[in-house]
Amino acid sequence: MIQVKNVKKSYHTGETEVHALRGVTFVIEKGEFMSIAGPSGSGKTTLLNLVGCLDKADEGTILIDNEIIHDQSKKELALLRRKKIGFVFQSFNLIPVLTAFENISFALSLLNVPEKKIEERTLNLLEEVGLKGMEYRLPHQLSGGQQQRIAIARALIKDPLIVLADEPTANLDSKTGEDILKLMKTMNRKHKTTFVFSTHDQMVMDYANRLIRLHDGTIQDDKTNPSAKG
Ligand SMILES: Nc1ncnc2c1ncn2[C@@H]1O[C@H](COP(=O)(O)OP(=O)(O)OP(=O)(O)O)[C@@H](O)[C@H]1O
Ligand SMILES: [Mg+2]
Q1: Cα–Cα nearest to 33, from 219, 155, 220, 206
Q2: For residue 13, is it within any domain?
Q3: Confidence band (pLDDT; 50, 70, 90) for 70?
């Protein structure tokens, strides 16, 4: 479903060059629940940004749904993201002046979905993430864990091919973080949505059905975990 082939990415700041990814190859199959782990600076965020079409690789190819994402314009990439990719971030990134309902439904209104359909899908998802009745709350009126639940609903509203989550539990206490992992796994099973999430945290890795370990911009290890939690 998604193929990453010999992808390389460097950053240039002043006179120094940082090789963030030094040739990374793997395939993400539909329905996977996969973690990218590795120490700080190993290239996790860089890799998620490339798969999420937020940035372009220097070398190598990425195929999403059999489509090579190299020569597209910024506009075409934005459209691809809007339709096929959901994002969950470490700091939730909800829009502070929009209610929970509006944060979740925003992406659908951009895709010209009829109002009635938007309302139905949004209220269903609010219930699925355990926040029924909280549709009028603003982000600052919600706890961190509740905000991340809204972010997960927002990512799922367009029924994306894949949800990319960069350290989704890093700003949550361990109990709340574990609840978020359980929710993501429930959604993965229920909607067959593919999830790829980065982490430093062993608890988070324990939920992954497959674990890729990055080290210094290369894949050190790629293993399935038949006894994953959740
Ligand atoms: N925009 C940038 N400009 C310059 N260097 C960057 C940039 N983004 C990342 N890097 C460098 O690229 C390398 C990989 O960074 P990346 O953010 O992908 O690591 P990470 O595994 O996500 O780390 P962390 O666990 O701290 O989030 C690091 O050496 C980092 O300093
Ligand atoms: Mg990172």
Answers
A1: 206
A2: yes
A3: confident
Q: How far is the CA of 74 from the centre of ligand 1 (A)?
A: 22
Which tokens hold the place of 102?
């509006």
Mind listing the pLDDT tens digit for each residue in 219-230?
999 999 999 998
Where would I find the H helices in 129-173?
Answer: 144-156
pTM, to two decimals: 0.95
Asked whether residue 229 is assigned to any structural domain, the reply reads no
CA distance 169 to 104: 19
Q: Which candidate, 165, 140, 162, 141, places its Cα nearest to that of 151?
A: 165
| 202-208 average pLDDT score | 97
- Looking at residue 84, which CATH number applies to its domain? 3.40.50.300
Residue 230 lies in a domain: no
Residue nearest to atom 7 of ligand 1 (CA): 11
**pLDDT of residue 10 exceeding 90:** yes
Cα(114) to ligand 2 centroid in Å equals 37
- Domain span at residue 101? 2-224
The one-letter amino acid at 197: F
The number of folded domains in the chain is 1
Angle at 194 between CA 65 and CA 124, to 5 degrees: 115
Distance 10 CA to ligand 1 centre (A): 10
pLDDT of residue 66: 86
